[in-house]
Amino acid sequence: MRGIESHFWLLGDQIRDWGIALRPFHELPLVGPATHVGGYTIGPAYYWIMWAVRVVAGPWFDNLPHAGGYGQAAIESAADALLFVALARRLESPGVAFAAMLVIVTAPFDVALSAIDWTPPIASALGKAAVALILLNWHRGGALRVAAIVTLAWSALQVYTGVVYVTAGVLLALTVDPLVRRDWLAVRRAAMTVALVVLVLQLPYLGHRMLHPSSGPAMGAVSGGVGLILSGQAAPEVAKSLAGFAGAFNYIEVEPWHTPLPLWALAACGAIVAVRYRRDPVVPALVLVPQLLAIVGYALFLGPLDHYYYIPVMPVVVLTGAFAVAWPARTRSGRVVGIAMVALAAAVVPWRLGFAATLHRLPEYRVLVAESREIAGTHEPVRAIRTEFTLPPSTDPEFLYKILGGRIDPAAPRTAIVRADGDVRYVEGGL
User: Fold this and answer.
1) Which residues pair with 386 in a beta bridge?
2) Could you give the count of Cα atoms lying within 13 Å of 105 in the half-sphere of its Cβ?
3) What is the pLDDT of residues 238-275, one digit of tens each?
4) I need a labelling partner for 379 at 20 to 30 A (CA). Which of 154, 240, 254, 391 fits?
5) Distance between CA 92 and CA 292 in Å, rounded?
6) Which has the closest alpha carbon to 431: 409, 418, 416, 411?
7) What SS3 state is found at 34?
8) Distances (CA, A) of 61 to 50, 400, 406
9) Could you tell me the pTM of the whole model?
10) 368-408 residue pLDDT tens
């Protein structure tokens, strides 16, 4: 979270979503953000979460968008802490658990995105929390606990569609666990709870479709690709999906190492887990099923694949490695493995964090904040705000000024010009 107020990545998505979070609750949309492949996510969970973050953290930061960055980072940190506790207990190897979490929490790409008010990191955090609660066997405490886990997993899906594979693994684990134990009453209870919670969580989407029937279905572009494949007009792109999965893992979890981990190594870890935990299907459901579904799912997606699509899936890939190599710490070999894994993971942390510091930063944000305060402090409207330095095309230099109470008036006599050194000059009229 260090330095968020100086280099917050204020792009179009952040401006749109934080602007929505600034609204009263009753004015929030009933669906999630628009996606770059068309449509929108299937529920309002992201806007509800960011609204709550704005209410809690916003007043401490004048409701500026980096308040959401602090809130997002706190949510991710809480999910990571919970996952560490769950993994340490399940593996009976605190060393391997700590090493795995060190790899997850210092992944440069994830670190760089952890505080920018964006859907993939929030969805990943909710997914990790749901996985952790199942690893802790918390769901065995009754239907209310099952409902809480389903709420986390399905809310993650409402936040970002790319978490669907983790959500599917969580729902499968919730039903397969009592099935293996032959607790038929628990099986029926889990299935009914899943169905009821999903139905309730989708009521806002149904309301949106009734109020706005012309808005089109959610994720229409994705379903269109599947339709082309099912109709025989296109074929699944399996090779592209495998390459995308391997490329995303190496970019998110291996960089800045320049020796990529081959796909066969990931497959070997998966095979070991499948054999070792064949009598404990909850673990394969949580860590293997999401990976297999991601490969299948993105083979059916006909567009180009970006690394960030895989952000919610990558933690379970790391967990697969942990489950493959871990031995209980009560044995000597288990302690040796744990110590070795911690040493290896810790050794590369400085390089990983150094690389993260070069990604997705907007150092001009500090200047925009300071000068927006200065211009707003005059209590006079301006015709516009322009900068002498270049900003990303989707960054609006007037957004922060408006949040701070400033007013843009096309009839105002002056336009404010922000210099790279932080000074403001005013020119008569517009530009």
Assistant:
1) 417
2) 20
3) 999 999 999 999 999 988 776 677 888 899 999 999 99
4) 391
5) 26
6) 416
7) strand
8) 14, 12, 16
9) 0.94
10) 999 999 999 999 999 999 999 999 999 999 999 999 999 99
